[in-house]
């Protein structure tokens, strides 16, 4: 598997290369305008020193470079933190649904490794994976066998019979409690649990494999044909059981939920984050704010933000799109801590719109707010994983001691966020952990 992933990371056009086997020399960025991930405005005329995978110094003036350092004159361009996508599916973003369900698992991983490289080349240096067997891909990337972003894995999405993610054929029914797992479950894409004891077991299995957080399905979903959007899956006691196990491991549960009922049940159970919530109402938004629950929502606007769907799935998709504007307005009104995620699935053409999804946020936020959300804001959500954090250190900021995940942008995204929708043209350098994976400036 490692060899296959390595081959995938090396394939295709572009600048991406596997991580070097030896340490990188220090890099000194000079003449940079810095968006630090927290501020509304740029800081001009700065130098940023990167060494041993971290930002070692951020200063104004003209300081000498350390011995052996590479000096990069930014030419008054913008240096900013790498982007973070808080809702991504590494195994399924670029693979057609039919292939994801039927292809050999080796092929799925090869395709996922190729998509991981493309994800990094779009400037997304970190993703939170919200369902799928991403652990081997994460390991291969971290060891330099493949090229891609940092991955915060959830492992299998945990659902009930008939819940979102239950893509089993009807021939797999009836299911006997405690019986053998289905072919779908054996891949690690999803796990079906219909009792609190089963759910506790599945949560522990994901944490054993290295999950940084747990994804539980609280209701229906769009892409699962037989899962009505208005349905509710786990009971309150079952959800509390999952939350308790995650808390015992000092991390958190995030719950897939669209409707007021599913969101409110997840909050009552102790979930720290809600995925989607496009159909929430005023009372639900107020409750989220009161309980300080994160909202990880996607700016879905129209059918161009989805693969083509038919029948009930298309109807559900349109219902979600119709609720997007109201959900964001409620989130702003009530001051809910809101994360950016794209949740693009089953198409390498669609996944290429990852940066475009970021620009959709201009309907509700200013450019600097959007940049903060996709950098330091999303990093705040990732920090909920506590000691289960696979990458200890400060992400999403340009400041002393932070992990050196950096983009050099030819233009000012605080005034023109659309620059990030065309990273091939406008992002000249992509650095992760101090290693340049794209370098259009040359040596």
Descriptive account of the structure:
The protein is an alpha/beta fold and 443 residues long. It has two domains: 126 residues, Roll (Urease, subunit C, domain 1); 305 residues, Metal-dependent hydrolases (TIM Barrel). It has 14 helices and 18 strands. The strands form four sheets. Strands 1, 2, 3, 4, 5, 16, 17 and 18 form an eight-stranded mixed β-sheet that branches. Strand 13, helix 9 and strand 14 form a beta-alpha-beta unit. Helix 9 crosses helix 10. The protein is globular and about 70 Å long. The two termini are 33 Å apart. The N terminus is likely disordered.
Largest sheet: 8 strands, mixed
- What number of structural domains do the residues give? 2
Please count the helical segments.
14
Sum up the overall morphology in one term. Answer: globular
Tell me the name of the CATH class of the largest domain: Alpha Beta
Roughly how many Å apart are the termini? 33 Å
Please tell me the overall pLDDT: 93
**Quantity of strands, as a count:** 18
CATH topology of the largest domain: TIM Barrel
């Amino acid at each position: 598997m490692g060899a296959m992933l390595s081959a995938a990371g090396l394939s295709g056009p572009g600048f991406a290369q596997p991580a070097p086997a030896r340490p990188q020399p220090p890099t000194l960025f000079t003449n940079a305008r810095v968006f630090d991930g927290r501020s509304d405005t740029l800081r001009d005329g700065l130098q940023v020193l990167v060494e041993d995978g971290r930002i070692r110094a951020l200063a104004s003036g003209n300081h000498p470079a350390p011995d052996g350092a590479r000096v990069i004159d930014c030419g008054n361009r913008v240096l900013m933190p790498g982007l973070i996508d808080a809702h991504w599916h590494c195994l399924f973003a670029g693979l057609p649904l039919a292939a994801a369900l039927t292809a050999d698992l080796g092929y799925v991983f090869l395709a996922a490794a190729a998509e991981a490289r493309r994800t990094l080349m779009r400037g997304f240096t970190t993703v939170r994976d919200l369902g799928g067997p991403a652990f081997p891909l994460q390991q291969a990337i971290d060891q330099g066998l493949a090229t891609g972003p940092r991955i915060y894995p959830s492992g299998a999405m945990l659902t009930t019979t008939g819940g979102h993610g239950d893509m089993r054929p009807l021939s797999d029914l009836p299911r006997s409690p405690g019986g053998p797992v289905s072919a779908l479950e054996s891949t690690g894409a999803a796990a079906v649990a219909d009792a609190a004891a089963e759910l506790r077991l599945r949560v522990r299995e994901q944490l054993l494999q290295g999950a940084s957080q747990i994804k539980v399905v609280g209701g229906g979903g769009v892409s699962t044909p037989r899962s009505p959007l208005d349905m509710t899956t786990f009971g309150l006691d079952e959800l509390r059981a999952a939350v308790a196990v995650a808390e015992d491991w000092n991390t958190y549960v995030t719950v897939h939920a669209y409707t007021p009922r599913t969101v409110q049940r997840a909050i009552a159970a102790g979930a720290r984050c809600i995925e989607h919530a496009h159909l929430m109402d005023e009372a639900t938004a107020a409750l989220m704010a009161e309980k300080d629950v994160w909202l990880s929502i996607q700016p879905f606007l129209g059918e161009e933000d989805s693969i083509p769907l038919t029948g009930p799935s298309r109807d559900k998709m349109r219902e979600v799109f119709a609720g997007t504007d109201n959900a964001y307005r409620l989130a702003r009104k009530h001051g809910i801590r809101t994360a950016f995620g794209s949740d693009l699935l089953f198409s390498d053409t669609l996944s290429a719109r990852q940066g475009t999804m970021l620009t959709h946020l201009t309907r509700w936020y200013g450019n600097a707010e959007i940049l903060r959300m996709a950098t330091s804001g999303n990093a705040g959500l990732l920090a909920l994983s506590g000691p289960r954090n696979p990458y200890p250190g400060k992400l999403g900021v340009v400041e002393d001691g932070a992990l050196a995940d950096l983009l050099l942008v030819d233009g000012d995204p605080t005034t023109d966020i659309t620059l990030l929708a065309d990273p091939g043209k406008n992002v000249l350098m992509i650095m992760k952990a101090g290693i340049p994976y794209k370098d259009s400036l040359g040596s």
